[in-house]
Design goal:
single chain, alpha+beta, Heat Shock Protein 90, Ribosomal Protein S5, domain 2, 25 strands, about 30% helix, about 20% strand, elongated
Amino acid sequence: MENSRIHALPEDVINQIAAGEVVERPASVVKELMENALDAGASRIEVQISDGGKSSILIRDNGCGMSEADLDMCYLPHTTSKLKTAEDLFHLATNGFRGEAVASIAAVSKLTITSREEDAAEAHQVHLTGGTPDCKATDASPRGTSFLIEDLFFNAPVRKTFLGSDTLEASRILDTVTRLAMANPNVRIDYKVNGRDVFTGVEGNDLRSRIAEALGAGIARTMLPVDYEEAGIRVSGFAVPPDALKNKRSKLYFYVQKRPIWNPVMTKAVTRAYEPYGSTNAPIAVLFLEMEDVAVDVNVHPNKREVRFANENDVFLAVHHAIRDAFQKPEEDHPTISLEEITAPSPMPSAPAPSMPTLHPEPLFTRKAPAAEPAPSLPEKESAPMPMPFPCPKPAEKTVREKPSKYRSDDPDDIIQDLFSLPENGNIIPLTPQNLRPPTRMDKSTPPQFFQLANTYLVCEDSEGLLLIDQNAAHQRILYEQALNSLGAQAALESQELLFPEIVEFSAAEASVIPSLLETFDQLGFHLELFGKNTYQLRGTPRDLPFSRSVESLRELVSAVFEGDDPGNPSQETLAKAWAKSNAIQAGDKLSTEEMTQLMASLLTTQDPMSSPSGRPTLMRLPLSEIHKRFKR
């Protein structure tokens, strides 16, 4: 009809819309084609990318291959070899089904597919541009299939602008590769970026060895096996025990029927299982769920990232109990597996730490190495109330005063809790630039004296009451501004060379971004040299960082940078925040009087002394007028 406003979309537009659901970025391409290779029975898969996958992605396998007729069908929409009826969707023994993966990839790229079956005399090849076949040919390639994707999103420039840097996209592909590699330890998987080997998964390994290849042998060695069944759901895999956790970033790898998935129910179940152990670090676990096909729907998300469970409560309980069961087993019940063959990198020649111009932001807060005895830890949430500094027995009978407050209690511990937590009664006020002044005592002839509360807060008297300082937040502010000054001036913070270099192993994903950050780490005082695959020598650390914390601080710095929006090219602010967080004194660190005085003096010279880089308050004042009010003066 001439006046009709509704019309059918052209085929190329339909294909690009479908591609938008399936192909979000280069990692989506790698995921779909690696899953197809696994379903084709491949025992070896090679992934090569250039420029973060934007210029080219090559995925080659030695699977069963395709005939010429199959090759002519595989790039058409809604074609598959994985099912024939709708009922088959709920009984898949493969890596899921969309029927649009190859068609979607072809629609937004220049694609060359080459495939050969076992008994075929030669391989067949087809080249497509934007989903349209250009030419066909024969080739002498061996059995298997290869996909060469070039100029991804060449006909969708807006989509291209939403991609991250080359390093970021390459790290996303690496995450995809390692997740599939851990689920298939019997398959050799190689991943190369711009011709450089980034990940190699040796075929024939067991799961723990494959985890070591992906996450590092240090993590794999500490993991406890998980094997538990409840309500028809079997949970197996490995988890790091709470006392061995070191990172602040969770590393959770979930699989259903060997398909990598993300699921909030499973995440919550794992987190809750760790909570009773009081660790402040993030959990690390690799878990596989096995259940009846009808109990899980793997096709509710366009790229199969999420799944739907028929009974989420059963899944939560099974995962939660599986982790707790693994932690509660006697140590002798846990089998040990040797990882010697993958934990001994070949050493490279060492060289002295590079010499760089140094920057001395003043005043510097000089930290000393902690004493041999462990610093007292903070009380846990459910521990007994903090004792009074002097005996204060409870009255035999509680007296009700006129106009009683609903928060009032005759228990002296409750009064202290009330004073510090209830603004109606305590009225602790945050400081602002207008009311911040250096602490001065009533008696101005003597300097202010500091003491620590729970080895976490500094307390001193000033002319208006009590000043409370969060030592971690305050030190983060000092270090943050020092790092910004150093990075902005292209100068280096002073470093101390280690007498014996420390060997530090990173996960494959973290190690992939470190080469682009070595110069920046030098500026911040960490001098690293490549020592082996995913392993570096730490030869120098920031001057004021205790040796005992050097490796932990480096790991925290790398982890924090890796969590950022663009780990391969982080902003100066991101780097400064990460460096400050990883190097600052912690809650529970005991400080000397001189250190407390210097911390406060350094804080007052910063541009924003009232808050940490993340926005936490650094100082608060409890006014003397409020103290008088509480004692009814």
